[in-house]
Design goal:
Pfam family, one: p450
Keywords: Heme, Iron, Membrane, Metal-binding, Monooxygenase, Oxidoreductase, Transmembrane, Transmembrane helix
Distance between the termini: 88 Å
Cofactor: heme
Organism: Mycena chlorophos
Protein name: Cytochrome P450
Helix content: 40-55%
Strand order of the largest sheet: 1-2-7-4
Shape: globular
CATH superfamily: Cytochrome P450
CATH architecture: Orthogonal Bundle
Length: 534
């Protein structure tokens, strides 16, 4: 009898919970937004959204539901999945990332830009903005060209490409030059010699592939501080039988130890106040700026260390993958490659005698180089999704109506506070009503003429020519001009010396946090390219 009573109470409780959830959803302001059924009881549609091979999923959602759909997140949570440009604009300009996203960055790299919000983030941004302005970047132009030419020399001489074509993993080499440049400009010392030997710090290449399997942990991050002291939590990261977690622990340790040791070496140095001083790296510049700043604006020691770690991790996670995609496009479309090479050879920069500011301006003024970079990141955006959470109740008008669950047109959505958004950037970049009927064609020349009126009307809030590759709003990538300089310098030097051709390898693109190239059946990020000397 007692067992029957327990059973009846349990069944009643389950029914009550089910009815509550059903009624709650029926009352939801998002009830009229259509979307696919969840595929998991507790993970909802997240396995589809974050499938590394799931490139067809956003296409299907766009075709079936339009620019706004309702997904199911963890434990039945409602998620807005949107590529509508008005929604993207409102969300990125006003809403922060979900706490689990910010806190996960904080766990990895401390109180850097990605790991902070509110006034602390604004204060850091004000301090860091001058470091990524063209005025400062111009002083680095010769350094970028010198490193790119050193890599070319390694290819030509150490690998003998001046005599015979050779296939190289260009993702690997893009990672190496990125690490060299980022470490030099962040720490004031290089972590990679760019010779034919082994990668100076191979753990840096593991960050993005290790991060995706750990996504499920993000919901537990706010509670991790209750697991015990920091040393115990570090021990867990390195010793639990979870390879992705162990790898991420190594990445964090390397970045943190490098940033901390560099700070300890520099904090007591006499830093030259001259703007033309050799000490232009981020760490030295921040230390100088901190001395001049008002007490309430200064960054703590931990914040300075965290900025350098954040910038290092962010650059090594993105730039090599963008360059790999550009190399792929140039190899796939040899006419585009030939046109770009003709522009570069005609420019014929005087790298030894040019003023760095003048050289920077000349490089940025190359129209076809600019167009190739824009079109590559439009058609194949390296970051396909951005997550945000509403911090207030909002009504957001749509750019174009969608059809609701009741068959009527929906022209705006009422969004309750704490609603999660997944902004589908890849769909926005491939929307024919924004870009034109040739949206799926790789056409750099589209950027050499006026874009459709619909493009101006959509007003995508990307910081990089309205492309969302570097995000938008107050959390947009602060280093996008730095990345642009590196990529343009590398393309200029590489195409001046080599012809790029695809191999017969079965190439795939994995939808990690940042899209990464790989070879079917092989581990690790790879993009083989045949280089032939001109």
């Amino acid at each position: 009898m007692a067992f029957s009573n327990v059973l009846l109470v349990s069944v009643a409780a389950v029914v009550a919970v089910v009815l509550y959830l059903r009624n709650k959803r029926a009352r939801s302001p998002l009830a009229n937004i259509r979307g696919p059924s969840p595929v998991s009881l507790w993970k909802g549609n997240l396995p589809q959204i974050f499938d590394i091979e799931g490139w067809e999923f956003p296409v299907r959602i766009f075709n079936e539901y339009g620019r706004v759909a309702k997904m199911t997140g963890l434990f039945g949570n409602e998620v807005i999945y949107a590529s509508d440009p008005r929604v993207i604009r409102r969300v990125l300009l006003n809403f922060p990332p979900p706490p689990m996203v910010t806190q996960s960055h904080n766990l990895l790299n401390g109180d850097g830009l990605l790991g902070t919000n509110g006034e602390q983030h604004r204060r850091q941004r004000r301090m860091l903005n001058p470091l990524f302005a063209p005025k400062h970047l111009k002083t680095l132009t010769h350094l970028f060209f010198a490193r790119a030419n050193k890599m070319n020399k390694t290819f030509l001489e150490d690998f003998g490409i001046k005599d015979h074509p050779k296939v190289l993993n260009m993702h690997y080499w893009a990672s190496r030059i990125t690490l060299d440049l980022v470490s030099t400009t962040s720490f004031g010392r290089s972590l990679d010699p760019l010779d034919s030997g082994r990668f100076g710090a191979p753990v840096y290449r593991c960050c993005s592939p290790a991060a995706l399997p750990l996504s499920v942990l993000r919901i537990t991050i706010p509670y991790m501080r209750y697991l015990g002291p920091k040393n115990f939590r570090r021990w867990l990261v390195h010793n639990l039988p979870w390879p992705a977690l162990n790898t991420m622990g190594k990445v964090v340790d390397v970045i943190s130890n490098t940033a901390t040791s560099t700070y300890e070496n520099k904090k007591n140095m006499e830093l030259d106040e001259d703007e033309d001083a050799e000490q232009r790296d981020v760490m030295s510049t921040l230390l100088r700026a901190n001395k001049k700043a008002l007490a309430e604006d200064r960054l703590s020691d931990y914040e300075v260390i965290s900025q350098v770690g954040t910038l290092t991790a962010a650059a090594n996670d993105t730039t090599p993958n963008v360059l790999s995609r550009v190399f792929y496009m140039l190899s796939k479309y040899p006419k585009v490659q030939d046109t770009l090479r003709a522009e570069i050879l005609a420019a014929d920069f005087d790298l030894e005698n040019s003023d760095p500011g003048q050289l920077y301006d000349q490089l940025m003024a190359l129209p076809y180089l600019d167009a190739v970079l824009k079109e590559s990141m439009r058609l194949d955006c390296p970051v396909s999704m951005i997550q945000r959470r509403a911090n207030v109740d909002s009504t957001i008008p749509l750019w174009k109506p969608i059809i609701g669950a009741d068959g009527t047109e929906v022209t705006s959505i009422n969004v309750p506070k704490d609603t999660d958004f997944i902004l589908q950037i890849a769909n926005a970049h491939r929307d024919a009503e924004i870009w034109g009927d040739d949206v799926m064609e790789y056409k750099p020349e589209r950027w050499l003429k006026d874009l459709p009126d619909s493009f101006e009307d959509a007003k995508l809030p990307g910081v990089f020519y309205q492309i969302m590759a570097f995000g938008g709003g107050y959390k947009a990538c602060i280093g996008y001009k730095y990345a642009e300089l590196q990529m343009k310098v590398q393309l200029y030097t590489l195409l001046s010396s080599f012809r790029l051709s695809l191999t017969d390898d079965n190439l795939i693109w994995n939808m990690h946090m940042v899209t990464t190239p790989g070879i079917v059946g092989q581990k690790g990020s790879q993009f083989p390219v045949q280089l032939s000397a001109l």
